[in-house]
Specification:
With 394 residues, this protein is of the alpha/beta class. It has one domain: Aldolase class I (TIM Barrel), CATH 3.20.20. The longest helix is centred in the middle third of the chain and has 20 residues. Strand 1 and strand 2 form a beta hairpin. It is built from 14 helices and twelve strands. The strands form three sheets. The chain has an eight-stranded parallel barrel with strand order 3-4-5-6-7-8-9-12, surrounded by five helices. It binds flavin mononucleotide (FMN). Flavin mononucleotide (FMN) binds next to strand 4 and helix 13.
Length: 394
């Protein structure tokens, strides 16, 4: 092993809110669907442990569901759908015991671990055998998106997803916030080191942030600053539930799953005005989720979204997207990417101050020892398409 390497700067520990992260590398959240009945198995624990053994300092788990009728609930678990029952929960005694084991395994390997808590919002779909009309969809305004996006939906989906009369009520909004707080308290109780909130990609927190899906005129809506209220209240509730010592990371994105060209913020000033209140509510780290770190965000600027966030907000920022892999702009995350060695380019951006922490997704899914190879200069492994499949936890 060389005594110095091109990624050494990322391997130094860093202290945030009194918590020492072993290094600046994070495993990016990746849904695995390998937790039957919402309970992470020993195989899931071993999967995360292997990444910590491979040198990842902090693991952000796959999305884990909070308890609400608009997302995974006991009903779905009992419904017997293979795909949905593989998604893990941050409630039920059995799921929490499963997580306790995951946390212990990662800690034993010297890593930290945060669960990524999420609520599907308008991306809820029926379980196998269920009708669209039988599921509860949590939607800020009962609007799925732009007229084009609505037109692209099948008839029954369009009907279920576009019901302004079913906009979330005040009580439903408060119940979801409470569900996040309860899930965060559960995570603390089983030993997690922090909480990662999924505020991007077109799920519920993100649905509130955007004008396409949030047309509310009450205190949960308004302009881009008014639309941050749901995220702000949710972060406050999570902070209250976990106390002052644990970290909170907040993932956001310009794009959504159903509109890769969407823009959460049209200008840097808007981005600052969106993130500032969320930061003040108790966030310690912002995960600026890009599909590729080379993607620029505002016309005329070469900076990517993490570079802009770092410039605008005085909090540590995570860069994510495209480390060790490459795909075409509109290609799905589930299409096997090309393996590339772009480590030098990533490090140039680190030195240029575009990010503080680096999240790595598919490269680590494909190879738990990816970081060691980046360090030693050993060639990277070819991409194994099987690793993208639901249920893979090698
Ligand atoms: C199979 C798969 C599952 C994913 N699941 C999640 C998820 O649960 N939550 C999330 O925020 N992002 C999810 N992502 C996105 C990744 O966290 C990451 O942002 C994306 O893959 C880009 O990083 P990469 O190029 O290093 O893979 C997923 C990506 C893949 C490939």
């Amino acid at each position: 092993m060389p005594s110095s390497s091109r990624i050494d700067a990322l391997l130094k520990p860093v202290k945030i809110r009194g918590v020492e992260l072993p290094n600046r590398v994070i495993m990016s959240p990746m849904t695995r669907g390998a937790s039957p009945n919402g309970v992470p198995t020993p195989a899931v624990a071993a999967y995360y442990r292997r990444r910590a053994e491979g040198g990842v300092g902090t693991i952000f788990t796959e999305s884990v569901f909070v308890e609400d009728k608009g997302t995974m609930g006991k009903f779905d678990l009992e419904g017997g759908d293979d795909r949905q029952t593989g998604w893990p929960l941050m409630f039920t005694d059995a799921a929490l015991e499963g997580w306790r084991h995951v946390v212990d395994e990662v800690h034993a390997a010297g890593g930290l671990i945060f669960p990524q808590l999420m609520h599907l919002g308008i991306q809820r779909t029926p379980a196998r055998g269920q009708a669209w009309s039988d599921i509860h969809i949590s939607s800020p305004s009962g609007i799925f998106g732009t007229p084009d996006q609505i037109a692209a939906l099948k008839e029954d989906a369009a009907k279920a997803l576009n019901c302004p009369e079913k906009s979330m009520t005040e009580a439903e909004i408060l119940a979801v916030i409470d569900a996040f707080a309860c899930a965060a308290a559960n995570a603390k109780a089983v030993g997690f080191d922090g909480i990662a909130l999924h505020g991007g990609h077109g799920y519920l927190i993100d649905n509130f942030l955007r004008e396409e899906t949030n047309r509310r005129t009450d205190r949960w809506g308004g302009d881009h600053v008014g639309r941050t209220r749901f995220a702000v209240e949710l972060v406050r509730a999570v902070r209250k539930a976990i106390g002052d010592e644990m970290l909170i990371s907040f993932r956001f994105s310009q794009w959504t799953h159903h509109d890769l060209d969407a823009q959460l913020s049209k200008t840097p000033e808007q981005l600052k005005q969106i993130l500032e209140p969320i930061a003040e509510a108790g966030v310690d780290i912002f995960e600026a989720s890009a599909r590729d770190f080379r993607d620029t965000v505002y016309e005329g600027s070469p900076l990517n979204i993490s570079g802009w966030t770092r410039k605008l907000i005085n909090k540590p920022v995570v860069m994510v997207g495209g480390t060790g892999v490459r795909r075409d702009r509109y290609e799905s995350a589930l299409t096997p990417p090309q393996v590339v060695d772009n480590v030098d380019e990533v490090m140039e951006r680190y030195v240029a101050g575009e990010f503080d922490l680096l999240a790595i997704g598919r490269a680590l899914l494909n190879d738990p020892d990816w970081l060691q190879r980046a360090r030693t200069g050993e060639p990277f492994l070819p991409f194994n398409p099987a690793c993208l499949k639901i249920g893979y936890v090698e």
